[in-house]
Design a protein that fits this description.
Length: 232
């Protein structure tokens, strides 16, 4: 694992925000709480959570990335759907009431693993936003809405060995690339691809074991940042 840090309250305006740093990958994650829900959820009593993801100009090397925040490419759309699905798995939406939470993940510096950093940092921003909502709704705290801690990490096989939390140098050479999302001890999503080769069941087990170890470290970093669950 690279060094993992979550710098809370990175911005002053959102209900929750943090700078998620996985080595040289840095993602600003914010959580905004708004009244009302999409039309398909009206009169159901359920809340909603959705996410957006963008790589900002200057976040990558080489040619300057265009500012196309209103025009999503296929990769950005797929990633923000993953972030939204993952974070919804961590929340009891019915307990939110007619409230929507918007998670924005903006990559300011990319060195591999931006989606996993966004998910892990998005959960920290979400936790703080739920602190605000809990006070407004006069409930015990963020845990009233949450099903547990959520984190994600990338793993892969590079030159025949298992690597956890791939940076760009590893990712660009990986024979196998995989992203794992977990809610406490339960798997939320497993995305695995044989980029330049194949992998067998034994290798899959090793990749999952490496992800478990990496996510445990991320959980500890989240705990230190939030002082879970004594922070109020």
């Amino acid at each position: 694992m690279r060094s993992v840090e979550f710098n809370r309250n990175y911005l002053i305006h959102p209900a929750g925000s943090c700078l998620a740093s996985f080595g040289d990958t840095k993602v600003i994650c914010t959580a905004t709480v708004e009244s009302g829900v999409p039309s398909f959820l009206e009169e159901t009593g359920s809340g909603w959570l959705t996410a957006e993801y963008a790589m900002l100009p200057g976040s990558t090397g080489g040619r300057r990335k265009k500012r196309e925040l209103l025009k999503r490419d296929g990769r950005s759309t797929e990633i923000q759907r993953l972030i939204g699905r993952s974070l919804r798995a961590a929340v009891d939406l019915e307990k939110l009431g007619a409230v929507s939470i918007l998670i924005d993940c903006d990559v300011i510096q990319a060195d591999g693993g931006t989606r996993t950093a966004a998910i892990s940092g998005g959960w920290v921003a979400l936790y703080d936003a739920l602190r605000v909502l809990a006070k407004e709704q006069d409930v015990s705290g963020p845990e009233h809405y949450l099903k547990g801690r959520l984190a994600a990490v990338s793993v892969g096989i590079v030159e025949g060995r298992v690597v956890c939390d791939l940076d760009y140098a590893h990712d660009s050479q990986a024979e196998v690339d995989m992203n794992i999302v977990k809610l406490e001890d339960e798997l939320v999503e497993v995305q695995g691809t044989g980029e330049r080769g194949t992998f067998d069941r034994s290798q899959l087990n090793k990749l999952l074991d490496a992800a478990d170890a990496g996510i445990s470290e991320i959980f500890e970093s989240q705990k230190r940042a939030l002082r879970i669950y004594g922070d109020r």
